[in-house]
Model the fold of this input.
Amino acid sequence: MSALSTNATRGDHRVVVIGGGFGGLRAVRHLRDAPVSVTLIDRRNFHLFQPLSYQVATGALSPSDVAYPLRALFAGSDNVRVLLADASGFDLDAREVRLAPAGDESIPDAVPYDTLIVAAGSSYSYFGHEEWREHAAEVKSMESAIVVCSEILAAFERAELATDPGARAAELTFVVVGGGPTGVEMAGQIGELARHTLRHDFRSIDPTTARVLLIETTDRLLGSFPASLSEKARRGLERIGVTPMLDTTVVDIDEKSVVLEDGQGARETVPTRTVVWAAGVQASSLATTLGELAGGEIDRSGRLTVESDLSLAGHPEVLVLGDMVRVRDADGQVQTLPGVAPVAIQQGVYAGRLIVDRLHGAATAPFHYHDKGNVATIGRGRAVVDLGWLRLSGLPAWVAWLVIHIWYLIGFRNRLFVALQWFFSFVSHGRSSRLIVEPDDIDVHEVPTSD
Done:
């Protein structure tokens, strides 16, 4: 086995980070001035601001608005190296990350480390029905978001061509599965697209008649929010033409329809050509790989249980972050933290600080997540915000949502362009990216989104 050299100009301690998402990125940024060499491995050459990928899926933003090249982020950090590669496994005894075969014998198949940070993220779970993935795309990856945008726009185009009323109605029916923040935001954006952006663009159809169904298995939307804000979100969606279907479960999906079952067991077949999946996540398979190697606990969603300092049991040199893990606190209780960006960000900062403390022989307190609240947008000028000490809805919440997301975006250009685009959209209902591309041109295989 040939291993890639990771010699550094600033330090001999080798840190390898898998995943250029929120957690991995924050860890690397914290280590830029530390006496270590850092190798960042990701299968994509960009950081995706995943909380806004659904806006790419509805044409509100362009892909470049929510992504930033990893190499550009660390061009000025002489101790950081970025590798475009796919981590496929580990040799914990040899302390090496194994890379997926690249088809070129000159490319090494392993990267050595002294400390390893794994923040490989998660993908959406189809609850044992992988055959649904073909007919219900998700918006967690950039590739899928682009495909979903094309599918939504193409549905209106097919409806314009259709002469059969039933076929036209099916094309103008959009089903979003999952009533969490992504599902609510996605459904709201489709409603805005149909009722405002496209309403004057067609001659044979009226886009405002489109049905947008939001499917949720529980009795309310946004289950992590207070009930009062969940109800306001439901009413806000209904005002823009979205129909929330609560206590409803998806039992089948094919290329022409979705079969739903309500709480009383009654089934309904909904003809549709466009289904968007936003329900449940599955941790990266690297979590299971680590668990099998180290004898760690894995839950039903594939999450690995780690120690209170985010380390793998028996391997303090391996830190695992984000959607991949559950954390055992100082009292031995296992905590399942929400799969949101702030968790990954705080864990990434903690991992970077832990490594620096270890190098200096200092102790680090156990990781503790500081919950700063939840935000979700419903549509133009509508959102809900729960900060614990403050709850907002309507326009004030939407402004707060805008500020929070612009603040966390990577890169000045992205912040500026997104702010300008949102201002343009607010005053004109316009959208910057309404291009239809052929799905065959894009790799939509399952791509876990890094934390």
In short: The two ends are 29 Å apart (CA to CA).
